[in-house]
Amino acid sequence: MSTDVTTPPVPAGPPPATDLRPAQPQESPGRRPSIGERLTQAAYLLILLAATAMFVYPLVWLVSASLKPKSQVFDNRLIPRQVQWSNFVEVWNAGPVLRWLFNSTTVGLMAATAVTLSSALVAFGFAYFRFRGKNVLFGLVLSTMMLPGAVTMVPVYLIWNKLGFVDTQIPLWAPNLFGTAFYIFLLRQFFLGIPRELFEAARVDGCGYLRMFWRIALPLCRPALIIVFVFELKASWSDLMKPLIYLQTPDYFTMPRGLKQIVDGYALSGEYHWEIAMAATLLATLPMVLVFAFAQRYILDGIATTAKQG
User: CA-to-CA distance for 203 and 201, rounded, in angstroms?
Assistant: First the structure.
């Protein structure tokens, strides 16, 4: 027996409610900036141009002064009225500049390499190993940044003098074999950003600590290593205090120490040739400008990564 089932009719009613509000216009990717945004961008651009001019002006002034005659060096004109290329020829007669440049390059590379490897090794230990008192020890390392160099200048000199290394280039770079607090802190931040699982997997495969440091940690922290290397190379290249303390033989002079000898020679003779001193200073400055120009990308990447991990 079948039963007919009929569907009851659906009562007629009002249609479903719809949103009758006007559609909001969507912003297109090519939207023109407003007047306020343009003024803000213009203000930022002006500030950037002003800061750039402040930093570039000394270098432009140095280039201009190195090309001027003696009587026009300090006239503050950025475009020389008379260009005197012979200033750069006279530099080589003022002293063994090529030898000084070679000494600065040697000492700078030795100091930068030593501080990069030693600081990275210490930083890896603070980042990877877990032991009691690690934070206290790391705090003591950072506290050495608060100690002025003038406080340790005399005892450090006495140590090198006792070892017989005065009037050699060894005291200019050998202290970097023990690392530097700032670089240790910088590299430690990078090592902390590396997943610990990578090191644990390497340990399972039988990798030693030094091999993990050389094969895993260093390749992954290349931007930080380049930052440390470039910063220390610049610091060693422009350092005058250490060569002034430890060096007496002109053949061992670095470029800053040689420039001081040139200026002192003019003072003894009573006739200053500032145009030659400016030309020598420009020769000493250009290598570091080129180094920073080629390493700029790594420096920016390294600083940005350190800021994120800090």
Answer: 5
Return d(Cα 19, Cα 286) in angstroms, integer. Answer: 69
Q: Is residue 200 within 8 Å of residue 234, measured between CB atoms?
A: no
The tokens describing 167, both together, are: 């009037």
**Which class would CATH give 93-309?**
mainly alpha
- Sign of the dihedral through C-alpha 268, 270, 273, 274: positive
- For 267-292, the DSSP string reads HHHT---HHHHHHHHHHHHHHHHHHH
Please state which of the ranges 2-11, 94-103, 210-219 shows the lowest mean pLDDT: 2-11
Q: In 3-state terms, what secondary structure has residue 210?
A: helix
**Residue 23: predicted pLDDT:** 52
Pairwise pLDDT comparison (9 vs 141), residue with the higher score: 141
Token pair, residue 61, equals 């002034």
What per-residue confidence (pLDDT) applies to 271? 78
With contact defined as beta carbons under 8 Å apart, do 131 and 139 qualify?
Answer: no
User: Which tokens go with 189?
Assistant: 């931040």
Can you give the residue ranges of every domain in the chain?
37-84, 93-309
Within 10 angstroms of residue 112's Cβ, the number of other Cβ atoms is: 22
CA terminus-to-terminus distance, the chain: 82
Is residue 305 a contact partner of residue 190, using CB atoms and an 8 Å limit? Answer: yes
**DSSP character string of 91-130:** HHHHS-HHHHHHHHHHHHHHHHHHHHHHHHHHHHHHHH--
Task: State the DSSP code for 180.
Answer: -
User: What's the token pair of residue 165?
Assistant: 């290394």
**What is the pLDDT averaged over residues 88-114?**
92
Q: Are 93 and 73 in contact (CB under 8 A)?
A: no
- Matching residue, tokens 């997943």: 195
Q: What is the pTM of this model?
A: 0.80
